[in-house]
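**Polypeptide and fold**
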Amino acid sequence: MNNVGVVSEEYTKRQEAFIVQQQQEKNKLTDMTITMVSQSDHMPLINQIRYSINEDDLRSSLVNMLQLLAEVQPACTNDVNQIMPIVDDRLALEWVRQATAFNEGYFAHFAREQGVADWMPHFIAENTLRPILQVVSEKMADELSAIKILGACPCCGEPPRLAVISKNGRKSLQCPRCHTQWNDKKISCAYCGNEDHQSIRVVTIEGSETEQIHGCLKCSNYTKVIKSTRLTNIDPALLDLKSLQLDYIVQLEKPFS
């Protein structure tokens, strides 16, 4: 298939700025404690734990994300100024809880009440949450290795939309949200477990030797697959960002419907 979309430089720089900010916020979470409250190998880990985080740090993280948005996207300044006065410990905690639960309805309602762009509260909450999820993934690596679920990241529940094939031919699914990585069979569907090569379609991209789309004709889901020519670690969020054109191809051409 043809490479039909290119992510704008402006959009890429804006998203990269948030990825950098996430790392800075993550570095402040060294004292975060995590406690297991249940144990199941068929449920994302984030639903089986409680974590403790300093409320001032959480509120500060949310404020920093709002300020960054106004800086990199000045058109959002009025919306940021609308929200900033009501940011407190309670709101920061609630936003993180609702983002963890993928509760888009909550954020849409909040946006309507405050008269701000409908995407903005969820976007800011998600960027505030991600450093927490990344710490959970790192600290709970042993517990994560026991979780085997289809169609979701074993840590945060994000759909498995990105995979990397290393130089030695091993395929690992990588979560852009929490940075969890877990092994997968080279030709298989991460959503339904289908391993029938005849119903797994591998779409190659014209002009690219490293990018593919693996789609399942049984469940119509797909994963972006990047062939890595280096042994160095690649930030999953950046990799997901730089491969957005593959998502555009699927949306436009619908090769797995």
The mean pLDDT is 93. The longest strand covers residues 211-216. The longest helix spans residues 120-139.
